[in-house]
Give the backbone structure.
Amino acid sequence: MKNINLGDFIFESLSRFMALSVFVVLVAIFVVLYIDAKPAIDSFGTGFLTGEIWAPNMETFGALPSIYGTIISTIIAMAVATPIAIGIAIFLSEIAHAKIKGVAGTLIELLAAIPSVIYGMWGLFYFVPIVRDVTGGSGMGLLTGGLILAIMIIPFTASITRDSMNTTPDILKESAYALGATKWDVIKDVVLPYAKIGVIGSIILSLGRALGETMAVTFVMGNAQRIPESILEPATSIPVTLANEFTEADSDIYYSSLYLLALLLFVVSFAIIATAKFLFLKKERS
Amino acid sequence: MLHKNKRKILNTVVLALSTTAALLGIAILFWIIGILLFKGLSVISINTFTQDGTPPGMEGGGLRQALVGHLMLTSVAMGIGIPVGMLAGTYLSEYGAGSKVANFIRDLSDIMMSAPSIVVGVFVYGIMVAPVHHFSGWAGSVALAILAIPVIIRTTDDMLRLVPQTLREAAYALGAPKWKVIFQVVYKGAAVGLMTGILLGVARVAGETAPLLFTSFNNNFFSLNMNDSMASLTVTMFGYASSPYEDWQQLGWAAAAILTFAVLFVNILSRVIMNIKKGKR
């Protein structure tokens, strides 16, 4: 007697349908972006990636200023954030006493909960003037954008890195201490090698986050569609261009070019996040 | 002897640097919170909640339209996101447990959790705004829901899997069908965890700006019409903060303070609930 319960049939179908909707939405994002980007792909081809001129009034669209800004600001962010985040993770997992560990860990995680638009606004009113005083110029540009991005991703990288470090078995650390190792010896020769894969994964994941972050940098990049001569001059990035120009686009090819930027951003960050998840962070889930 | 000293000095240096890094992070948190308290709370008055935005230079403007709009956008988003996310999470942990489909969906959902939110805004513009030629609150809510669903799926899945298998088996042994087991045993056992998942989903989308820029857009007037462009705290804040008018900037800080403290409150609430649960065990 194999009769499937009606309640089960309904509930299982419904829940499976909802689970599959995740896949459907993801495919739909690719398809919609691709269809809308098609006119730009057809008219500019690979020249879109290397074109230095983004001039809506002449219907010339080259994405290089946006791509350049995205890459440079992300590099600055990663270079600043990674050592600080690993330092914080070391503090939280190896140095702090149990009581401080809980409080400090929570505070760092709350830093990650602050909405990105707040970082942007804080950056514009408090961070830009500092950069301006130190370096001269407008204070807006890739350096400021990169630093704000760094502050945004530090708590994110730090908490995943800490979680990886915490998986190191105590017995391994204790045996090293018993041999006379200092804390740093233990961190460098036991904890980091043990947690290496998770740490690399968290850094790559943060890279994916930094690439697509919009509001934190929109305020402070200066929004100039050109390749700046230095990191102190106003520039733009893919998310910044989208945020500033999408509602202003007045021709089909302009829209299509913006869709193509969005498609590029989505494909690249999807690939980076997938790499982090599948190659490095996989085992921590199960 | 020299070698040992070197090790000790290096050890001290690294430990000091790590501690400094942690202090730096915490200092930035307090810096931002301090500014929001100082700049935001000094501006907030009863007018902030009862008055709509005014043109620059006019006295007494408030954030009513943005607050109401934000609540509506977030509520509708959660109205879509909670059932979809919880059902999908239920599939991953119960009906589909261990199957290839479930594992595949779990991976995709995890990736979606980190996907750039502005791209979701562009996508929703393409399917919901461009075809009808006008911005709408519905579009904004759908964009937020797409961002909330992966968070809810992840916590639902994790929390349901924490429910001991033996509890399920005990219910099966009494002859209960699977759906009854899920509703009456699994959901009950994981209730607190599920609540946390929903709160985390709210905290995730309540602070989003980028997906709303091209969907719900902004509105300077009070509106309850989800079919029209709708103000939100975040987009209003973006507009006010980048404007050159001082009274608008001040309202921007008020919006920033309200938003941040609300998001941090929800975040802390979800932690407290989790801790109470852990304490009970």
